[in-house]
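pasting for the record
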Amino acid sequence: MTLSFGILVFPNVQLLDVAGPNDAFAAVPGAKVHLIWKNCDPVTTTSGMEIRANTTFSTCPDLDVLCIPGGGGVNPLLQDEEVLSFVRGAAANARYITSVCTGSLVLGRAGLLKGKRATSHWNAVDFLPQLGAIPVRERVVKDGNLYTAGGITSGIDFGLEILAELLGEEEARTVQLALEYAPAPPFSSGTPEEATPQNLAEARKRMAHSRQERLELLGEPA
């Protein structure tokens, strides 16, 4: 079975939000991964690396899996009706509608999270109720054909879970092994609950500008 995956790319996208699921999807024999944007010009990611779409909004085929990654560039997308219209249309024909990190805010803004359980990056999950979603603080959340993943690195977990759903656990396990995905972080500081108050305060400080933009766009979370 040939599977078609689509991942939105855009200026200031979080590189790992794209690369994690992309590598999981691309490891499936015969799979086609579409990196989608308005055009095929290079876009600069949050880390400064450039990536390029290979599919445009007008040429994108029907997808088995539509994935919306996150990053600082999500904020402009929340006001971009061309993007939101594409997401709605692609989602209507996709078998699975998915996101990584703050990409769930785009799904919400497109009206696709109403009444759905969903997650996002820990610094953005409190915005989800304003977009009609039921917030859940888990690494990967499934609600029907909707999969949302937490921050950044959870994109690999989500990619493997989607492969298990589509092709069975054995295929997902094979891909996990091929990727040598056996996380053993050097520090227990990957969630607000694990981090020290000092680490949490510094992380919030570094993300304050992006969060302020979202506050102006979406309003203060309840």
